[in-house]
Amino acid sequence: MDISPTHHFDVYGREEIVGRIRAWVSSIAGRLGADERATADIVLAVSEAATNAVRHAYLDAQEYHLTLKARRIGERIVVRVRDYGSKFDPATIRLPDMGGVPRVGGYGIYLMRRVMDHVYYMASHPNGMELILVRRRNTA
Amino acid sequence: MRIEIVESQNVVVVAIGGDVDTTTASDLHTVFDDLVARGVRNFVIDLGDIAFMDSSGLAALAKLYKRIRIGRGDVRLCCLPPDMRRIIELTRFDRVFAIFATRAEAVASFAPKSE
Fold first, then answer.
1. pTM score, whole prediction
2. Contact state of B62 with A103 under an 8 Å Cβ cutoff
3. Which of A64, B28, B42, B43: disulfide with B11, CB 3.0–4.6 Å?
4. Which residues pair with A72 in a beta bridge?
5. Is A15 in CB contact (< 8 Å) with chain B?
6. How far is CA A10 from CA B23, B38, B95, B107, in A?
7. Backbone φ/ψ region at B47: left (φ over 0), alpha (ψ -120 to 50), beta
8. In the predicted model, what is the mean pLDDT of residues A30-43?
9. How many other C-beta atoms can be found within 10 angstroms of the C-beta atom of residue A121?
10. List of domains in chain B
């Protein structure tokens, strides 16, 4: 199977790192051959993942640290988003009730799952969590 | 993120541009809170210049909608770029918000119905 080299991005800072992460993953997704829709989906999912990390894993931290890794495995692009903060259980984040009046919040994980083919949480690290996002690089 | 507010007789247009994410959504909440506090009840949210919006922006729209729908006002959306439309449809916001192709149509939809 054709596997690309792994691209790494270590980023430190406050909430503004989410925008820097989006810019990085948008560039990398294109270089890995993602089409326009796939790139938009990957950027959205990674932005949501980074947002969850800075909101839930780094509650009291002065600086956040995230590590991203991206590579293509065959026709799929795999992005790993690793934080080094407190562990949190994503199951505790309520998914929105999608009927009637919209709920304020809870759409991040829902959107990630909708736009990606697979979303996995790895909680076995000594500290922090890792989110693994997988999507086909071609939408058709 | 850029926010432009255009007020007319019974409608306020809030045109949002750029990136709406966790770092900028608080500004959007502030703008919405101020307008609601001033008694604005009819909103058109123009999303035509949005480059990126994630769940933080959706939460701001949902919060505004819930506050406004308690009274007699409404929040209507217009000018959705394709990526924005997809997110709105994925979250089924299109079943909650009336969506218009142009700002003019959205504003006109608030005009009193003639007898």
1. 0.91
2. yes
3. B42
4. A77
5. yes
6. 19, 44, 40, 46
7. alpha
8. 96
9. 16
10. 2-108 (3.30.750.24)
